[in-house]
């Protein structure tokens, strides 16, 4: 097992804020919009640097999406910022018609995704957003795993033409990816090569997968860990190549098991080379109030649950002979 | 070249012929609102707006128009074709398979003149505001126009946008309301009352012009000129354009029944007899 260490923890949303500032420096067409959550989205540095390129929309997310679409018509590259729930479910039809169907170069950037939003509870803990966004034709869907990756992804999507949904979160988490990485949209990242099982993880579950991989190695299980930061377009080549080698799969995501990364992998495998698969995901339920750590344990989204899923899927593979 | 009132009236007559023929040919679509807005759209594209039919999506240096009530696509398509955005022969493909003239306007098929999809109501004002903001950022003094159905104002997003534009002094924007008092299920007064629209927009901070004669070409041209003279003064401008749904075809006028119904062969003949062919049918 390749060794991953960290010296610092930071929230992924700060990676977005710093990436947005950098994207704004690199391209004068980059503009930003926010629906009354500047502090939560870490947009202050961008606003300070480029006050005329920032638009405070107020608590009116539908209007924000429409204004972003309009800005893009004139060649601007708008980044919208609010919580994941208000970035997707609340404005689905606006995104569908004014952004996706109209092929507008809008970057929908969503913080506080999933259970790790914590104490605010289920009204704010969307677990369906990846599914909603990946069903829209032409939409790119990205879920980043740490500060550095989020910053790199934010810079990368400014250089990519087309609608993007970028999903990140609230809690501080280990920084374990390279500070100077080049983020390639649609290209899976090989975290650890292994032979016994393929663990495909996204977002906050990537670090949990690394922790699981270390414990599994101690027990003699050689896990391949791949970070799928881009859920759409899915890196089919990387997934199929890995599963051809390992023969079984665990997917891990901070999302409902319906419609997320796991389903994207399952569909790819079912139509190519079917393999036993276990999901580490929320089992079709809403969340609740609690600390992020408590919630991730209660809803089965941690290293222990990944380890259990790995053992189960390996035994299924052996039964299949 | 700006058309004068007589030329505009001739163009509007041809546009109305196109509308009923397009809707008849595919036996679907929305003739009522299209006929009612023919004078407005003709005045806009052949007199009021500075625009370039050699279409570019960004439209820098041009006035831009967004049709928010996308269901009146027949009038939009006919006006775009006569303005030179595409060959008017293409009007025959309206709502048919593999056409660029979709039931509701889209950018997906790359039809020149369309910059955003519309159909799901209430979204066009926000889009227009975004483009108006971009024009300000770019130092482009052009004006952004929109058209909305009055029933469309029942959508909440309209009022999010209506609140945003005055706060941010989006004064390069002219939003016109097709104030015909009708929607699919009946008169707006019965379905969901709009109340005092002028007072509502003014309370939100808009400069509101009320035009009672929305199917009189000279009046439409005059109110658009007046609206233009009101831009650049710190407020967005709204025009309450009183029109008649189905205007120009006697049996379609003043009722919601022709909101989304196509005429049969006999009704088509009756309608065309009332609309002079001025520029040649497609």
TrEMBL record, chain A:
SMART domains (UniProt xref): Transket_pyr
Gene3D superfamilies, per database record: 3.40.50.920, 3.40.50.970
Cited Pfam families: Transket_pyr (PF02779), Transketolase_C (PF02780)
Domain of life: Bacteria
SUPFAM superfamilies with a match to the protein in the record: Thiamin diphosphate-binding fold (THDP-binding), TK C-terminal domain-like
InterPro entries: PDH/Transketolase (IPR051157), THDP-binding (IPR029061), Transketo_C/PFOR_II (IPR009014), Transketolase-like_Pyr-bd (IPR005475), Transketolase_C (IPR033248)
Record domain Transketolase-like pyrimidine-binding: where: 10-175
PANTHER family attached to this UniProt entry: PYRUVATE DEHYDROGENASE E1 COMPONENT, TRANSKETOLASE-LIKE PYRIMIDINE-BINDING DOMAIN-CONTAINING PROTEIN
Protein name as it appears in the record: Transketolase C-terminal domain-containing protein
Organism (species): Mucilaginibacter gynuensis
């Amino acid at each position: 097992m390749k060794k991953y260490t960290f010296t610092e923890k930071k929230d992924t949303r700060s990676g977005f804020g710093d990436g947005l500032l950098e994207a704004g420096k690199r391209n004068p067409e980059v503009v930003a919009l926010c629906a009354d959550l500047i502090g939560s989205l870490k947009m202050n540095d961008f606003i300070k640097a480029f006050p005329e390129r920032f638009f405070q929309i107020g608590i009116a997310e539908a209007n924000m999406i429409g204004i972003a679409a309009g800005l893009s018509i004139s060649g601007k590259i708008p980044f919208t910022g609010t919580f994941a729930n208000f970035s997707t479910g609340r404005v689905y039809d606006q995104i569908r018609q004014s952004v996706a169907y109209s092929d507008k170069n809008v970057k929908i950037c969503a913080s506080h995704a999933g259970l790790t939003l914590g104490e605010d509870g289920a009204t704010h803990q969307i677990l369906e957003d990846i599914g909603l966004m990946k069903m829209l034709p032409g939409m790119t869907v990205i879920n980043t795993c740490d500060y550095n990756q989020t910053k790199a992804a934010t810079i990368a999507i400014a250089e990519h033409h087309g609608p993007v949904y970028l999903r990140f979160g609230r809690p501080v988490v280990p920084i374990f990816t390279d500070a100077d990485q080049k983020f390639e949209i649609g290209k899976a990242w090989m975290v650890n090569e292994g032979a016994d099982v393929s663990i495909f993880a996204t977002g906050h579950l990537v670090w949990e997968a690394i922790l699981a991989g270390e414990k599994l190695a101690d027990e003699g299980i050689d896990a391949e860990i791949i970070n799928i930061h881009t859920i759409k377009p899915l890196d089919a080549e990387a997934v199929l190549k890995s599963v051809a080698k390992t023969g079984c799969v665990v997917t891990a995501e901070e999302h409902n098991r319906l419609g997320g990364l796991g389903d994207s992998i399952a569909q790819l495998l079912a139509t190519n080379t079917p393999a036993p698969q276990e999901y580490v995901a929320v089992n079709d339920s809403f969340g609740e109030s609690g600390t992020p750590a408590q919630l991730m344990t209660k809803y089965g989204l941690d290293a222990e649950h990944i380890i259990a899923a790995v053992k189960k899927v390996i035994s299924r593979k052996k039964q299949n002979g | 070249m700006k058309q004068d009132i007589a030329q505009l009236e001739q163009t509007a007559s041809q546009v109305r012929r196109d509308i009923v023929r397009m809707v008849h040919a595919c036996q679907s679509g929305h003739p009522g609102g299209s006929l009612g807005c023919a004078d407005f759209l003709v005045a806009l594209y052949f007199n009021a707006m500075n625009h370039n039919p050699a279409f570019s999506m960004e439209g820098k240096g041009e006035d831009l128009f967004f049709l928010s009530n996308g269901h009146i696509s027949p009038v939009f398509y006919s006006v775009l074709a006569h303005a030179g955005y595409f060959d008017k022969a293409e009007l025959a493909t309206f709502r048919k398979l593999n056409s660029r003239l979709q039931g509701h306007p889209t950018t997906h098929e790359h039809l020149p003149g369309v910059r955003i999809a519309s159909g799901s109501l209430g979204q066009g004002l926000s889009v227009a505001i975004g483009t108006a903001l971009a024009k300000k950022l770019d130092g482009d003094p052009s004006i952004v126009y929109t058209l909305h159905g009055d029933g469309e104002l029942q959508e909440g997003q309209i009022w999010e946008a209506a609140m945003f534009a005055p706060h941010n002094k989006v004064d390069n924007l002219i939003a016109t309301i097709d104030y015909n008092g009708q929607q699919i299920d009946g008169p707006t007064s019965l379905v969901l009352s709009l109340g005092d629209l002028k007072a509502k927009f003014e309370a939100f901070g808009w400069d509101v012009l009320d035009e009672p004669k929305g199917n009189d070409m000279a009046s439409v041209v005059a109110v658009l000129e007046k609206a233009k003279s009101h831009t650049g003064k710190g407020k967005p401008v709204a025009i309450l354009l009183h029109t008649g749904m189905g205007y120009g075809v006697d049996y379609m006028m003043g009722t919601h029944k022709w909101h989304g119904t196509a005429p049969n062969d006999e009704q088509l003949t009756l309608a065309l007899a009332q609309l002079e062919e001025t520029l040649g049918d497609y």
